[in-house]
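Priority: low. Protein: ATPase. Input follows.
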Amino acid sequence: MVKTPKFRRKADDRPATAPSSQGRGKADLGRTSGAGGGDAPPDSASSGLQFSDPRLTRLRLPLRLTWLGLLSERLVRAYWPLLSLVMLALAAMMLGLHEKLPVELVWFGAVALVMAVVAAFAFGVWRFTWPRLSDALARLDATVPGHPIAALLDAQAIGSDDPASQALWQAHQQRMQACAAAAKAPKPNLSVARADPFALRYLAMLALAVAVLFGSIWRVGTLGEITPGAVAAATGPTWEGWIEPPRYTGLPVLYLNDQTETALNLPENSRLTLRFYGEVGDLTLDETISGRVGDLPSAAAAEQSFEITRDGTLSINGAGGRSWDVTLLRDQLPSVAIIGEPTLEADDTTSLAYTASDDYGVDGGQVEIALDLDALDRRHGLAALPGARDPIVLDLPLPLSGDRRAFDEQMIETFAKHPWANMPVTYRMVAQDAAGQEAKAEPLSAPLVTRRFFDPMAAAVAEQRRDLLWARANASRVAQILRTLSTYPAEVFRDHGDYLRLRTILRRLEQHSAAGTLGPNQQEDLAEALWDLAVQLEEGDVGDAMARMQRAQEQLSQAMRDGASEEEIARLMQQLRDATQDYLRQLQRQAQEQGNQGEQQGAPDENAMQLSQQDLQAMMDRIQELMEQGRMAEAEQALREFQQMMENMRVTEGQQGQDGSPGEQSMEGLADTLREQQGLSDQAFRDLQEQFNPGARRGESEGNEGRNGGLGRGQSHEGGQGNQGGQGDRPGAGTPGGERQPGQGGQGQRAPDADGGQSGGDAAQPGGRRGLGGSLADRQQALRDQLRAQRDGLPLGNGEGDQATRDALDDAGRAMDGAEEALRQGDLAEAIDRQSDAMEALREGMRALGEAMAEQQQPGQQQGQGRANTSAQGNRMDPLGRRNGEQGDGGVSDGQFSEGQAYRRAWDLLEEIRRRAGERSRSDTERSYLERLLDRF
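Result:
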């Protein structure tokens, strides 16, 4: 019979025969006492069971670890409230809360803390009990199946004199010992979730962690200094004071103890803080500068703080006291004034200059533009009672950097589509300082200058749009005039599509007018359609460079006849210059294509006209000079001669062979790839801009430049006017010979959106824009495939320049792969960086290819058979007599700007960034991005 320890057996398992005293002394360990109470087992010492028991030799380490785990559990469950209180108190002192709170509140908190600590400690003493060896044995035995440790401690009750029984018992003990050797100490259970259901212990730990990160252990030592005069009690009374000017003044804090002068000049609303140390009453305050009334603090209060609102005296009476005469510096009102008249910029924006100043800096302002009905000529469509329309209110642009105490600035906005465009208005300007004071400028009565239409039909459509926006009562009158305009379409419309658009607008207007359903939304929709039609009639189909140049000449001629302002004439003159540049570049490309096709193999015509770009610039400069001098008749005559000369220009050009050498074809292909990569990079940058200004519809972001250089006000980013034919200003934009788009295989076909027919309604998504052959990522992949095909087809050898070309194109390919991956992930900033790397590698590859071609060229090799109107040299010439590759002052080659043009464009971009960053209406994210750009450049 076996005697089993009590921590394992149940009451109904007890043997009928009482165990011997020897077995009882060895095995009676008693039941374990858990947290829930129960009969206390006899002490391990009294039962004779110790850690040194030979039966537990192999279990000593896990048994001790188990006992320590039990000890930690009972300590945590008993003393967790005390630990939480200590952590909270330490965190408060490390964060310096006792320095911010009143002394009385600190003392109250200290007393409450001490009482809570005593209570928590008493709770822990009452709750805690030392774990016994039997508890550890029971915990460890539960980790092994079959409870071998309890069996190992069993004693043989009967048959101890029988050798067979003893042998069987020894075998059983050895087997149990082997099983018990696998026992491992269990992990202690330190959870106190039942006792702390609100997790207050974690709040205490979090507070201590914050104090360790952001506080200081040295602040604990300042607890004894919270009593006023505690440190200075032994040395006598002392004091200290500070004067804090308002933050907007930008002035430093004054330490009153260091002010040796008896006169103080202080800004208005400065805050004075005084602290007295020592016995209460040794130091007192006497002042007449705060203007305080009512229940005032004691003059001997240990700490006093108030604002200085008037002149007077400040005196500290007592040992070491001082006295000052205080003079208040009044915050002056800001000033603002409008400079000159509003002007029309070249991009059809209205510019209004102003000057503002304040003694501490201008903090903001607004300009209000209201219609001046008294100065308006109320005839025709304006005779009706106008609809209610609020004044235009805009925030004044402020300097992003520099001193705001005195500055001159310009407000630049677009009002081309506003119903009050070119009507007399009143400009009222208000400026504010940081103190909330306002100043108003003298009102200015002037027209709301904006874009004008010089084509008679476009001007008529724009006028009817104005009348419709003026009052919905004009709807029938506008419909009647539009029907009159469309009576003889063949005589007034250059494009049948424009006539159909006018008829569609007219039908919608008449339907709404007849049904009485012309509401504000329908009014705005019809006005937008009329605006698009007027712009189309004014600009025409500018897809062809020659047509665009002729259109610019007609507009300039019409403006001179109508007596337009100097600003408008200057803008139209610049348009003519740009259109002429586009036309000349188109001629150059056509000449190159004809030369490559072998269409002109003969000698040049010696009598053909030859002009340099400098000659053309001189002629246009002469026209502008005549206009500025007011000699309009002579200027118009010079313009007609210039137009006739451009129409009669003949271009012949030599070539180096039927189709050019393979090296030249490869160079041209790489140049096309570079231009296409530049277009993709421009598109990605515009998408990134629209992320910062999500409220702006596509193509309406102010100052946005289209891919071809055209400003984005009212235009799509692809250079078109919605679904119209408008194009950007960049050379070759939208022309049959213009830039090829990625994925077109370099065939020189017109892009789908070259005439705006497919791009107006596409939605912009980050990292991918529809149109032009798919998303940006797909177009980047197509361009990468195109570059790979060009790289494989290069006529390269094994020279140094050949290997440099391969390496550069490989670098460009890897950069394009990175750009494609970034575009698919929506990381536009990373994509732009990789595209920049690709363009740089392409330029390096083109340079290396040129050097490789020069190495392969044999001395005396013929450079071509034809000449271009001039010399007998073999170099190919463009229509202006320049050698192929040369550029004039305004030329662009392979997507790169000349040096002077690059500096001018960089300066314009920097000014535009500064203007946008100063506009308070933009989002904080966009303004932060613009400020980072300015900091970088």
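The chain has six domains: 2-180, 238-329, 335-380+389-447, 458-647, 662-693+732-861, 898-937. The longest strand covers residues 335-344.
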